[in-house]
Write a structure and sequence with these properties.
single chain; Neuraminidase; 2% helix
Length: 433
């Protein structure tokens, strides 16, 4: 991991090392780093690590051109072999305005390193460059096919490397960036153009011509790659879009509406740990008022969540809540279901609601009775026997749902989602009056 750390009152570039993504060593300040170095990319592979910064920072839309602070005009590349130390940086001229952060990507694989950049100077001229190295010491100009387009992002993984380029937006089609994916398989030196992105399937939302789809990020995951970005929808405008690939060449678009990607206008990338991934999106101003909230998705690549594969009560043990109720299940399937009666104990006899517990209570035992792991049982004892919806002997069904939630039915009526995170999960929010 690379970033900045305080040193003598200034922020300078540094790296952090880890062997297991859990325990991190102390930051290492990169040799020759200065306060104007803004870290823009880092990549690690079999031949070592490369860190890319630009010494014209810090970059900001409100940065003043007339600042007296030092601003350089070069990319700065630090490299290290395996677990070895970083040496002095190599500089590559790439003038950039302090208001326009350079677009930089880096990949590191068995064939070496590739660094791409697009730097826009104060005169709004954009310089595009691609540099490559096999060992991190000697750098040269990169493949010609990348130089005519802006390289947006890249990633390296078990299957090889991916670079994403795109054309510039034109006055005739503002906001449209045609993306091209290039792949370099493990053990190969050359890059191959991937197949065009899948456009999706009607009647899903966000089904659009390929020139109306663009990518922001690509992530290498065990078994393939994830690419995230946006797609134009005829009725909604831009909506989030996600593609997956096993080989980096053939890409399949994931369902937009089913995954609620149409609730955002862009997806910006994913981060993973131990097989689980968080996907980041930007909320749509048209749907959320004056703010543009970030939204997160949690999922896996290629396989069903392990909890879906478990049998019995193992994956249900715990407490599941929403604003007006809770369901606690132990390892043997015994459950306690509490619900709000809207009867305050200050003015009503028991059963009634207190500040710490809802008054309605039912208990029973759940058992697994289907191939999908759904639990079923009955309300054996209830403290509201006259309530037709919660009478003794009423059936209860609990089905495991994605992202730490269950779906509950009582007496053949849907009671909705109960979440492990309770009101912190937007699916389980309800106001307490």
């Amino acid at each position: 991991m690379a970033g900045q750390v305080s040193n003598g009152g200034s922020l300078v570039p540094a790296v952090w090392r880890t062997q297991d993504a859990r325990h991190w060593k102390r930051p290492e300040i990169l040799p020759g780093g200065v306060a104007s170095d803004e870290v823009l990319a880092v990549a690690h592979g079999p031949r070592g690590t490369v860190v890319v910064a630009h010494d014209g920072g810090p970059f900001s839309e409100s940065a003043e051109d007339g600042t007296s602070a030092y601003r350089g005009e070069s990319l700065r590349l630090w490299t290290a072999k395996a677990d070895g130390p970083f040496g002095q940086p190599r500089e590559v001229p790439c003038p950039a305005s302090p208001t326009d952060e350079p677009q930089v990507s880096a990949v590191a694989d068995a064939a070496g390193f590739v660094v791409t950049a697009a730097c826009t100077n104060r005169s709004q001229y954009t310089k595009r460059l691609v540099v490559t190295s096999r060992d991190g010491a000697q750098w040269g100009s990169g493949p010609d096919q990348f130089k005519q387009q802006t390289t947006v992002t890249g990633a390296s993984g078990e299957q090889g490397s991916i670079l994403v380029t795109r054309t510039e937006s034109s006055d005739a089609d503002p906001g449209y960036f045609l993306s091209t994916l290039w792949s370099r398989t493990k053990g190969a030196d050359g890059w191959k153009r991937g197949r065009p992105l899948d456009v999706g399937r009607i009647p899903d939302t966000g089904v659009a011509p390929r020139e109306q789809q663009s990518l922001n990020a690509v992530n290498a995951v065990p078994g393939g790659f994830i690419a995230s970005g946006r797609s134009m929808d005829l009725g909604l405008g831009p909506v989030g879009a996600l593609w997956t690939s096993q080989d980096g060449r053939r890409w399949t678009k994931q369902a937009t509406k089913k995954n609620q990607f149409d609730q955002v206008f862009d997806l910006y990338g994913a981060a993973g740990l131990h097989g689980r991934y968080i996907l980041l999106g930007q909320g749509d101003l048209r749907k959320s008022g004056d703010t543009e909230p970030a939204r997160l998705w949690l999922g896996r690549f290629g396989t069903a969540p392990p909890l879906r594969q478990q049998r019995g009560t193992a994956s249900f043990t715990g407490t599941w809540t929403w604003g007006h109720g809770s369901l606690a299940i132990d390892k043997k399937g015994h459950f306690t279901y509490r619900r709000r009666l809207f009867r305050d104990c200050d003015s009503h006899p028991a059963p009634c609601d207190t500040a710490t517990a809802w008054g309605g209570k039912a208990t029973g035992t759940l058992k697994s009775s289907s191939d999908d792991g759904t639990l079923r049982g009955r309300l054996n004892v209830t403290n509201t026997p006259d309530d037709p919806n919660y009478h003794e002997g009423a059936t209860i069904e609990v089905k495991r749902m994605p992202y730490s939630a269950v779906f509950v039915r009582v007496d053949d009526r849907d009671h909705g989602y109960f979440c492990a995170a309770g009101p912190e999960d937007p699916r389980c929010i309800a106001a307490h009056e």
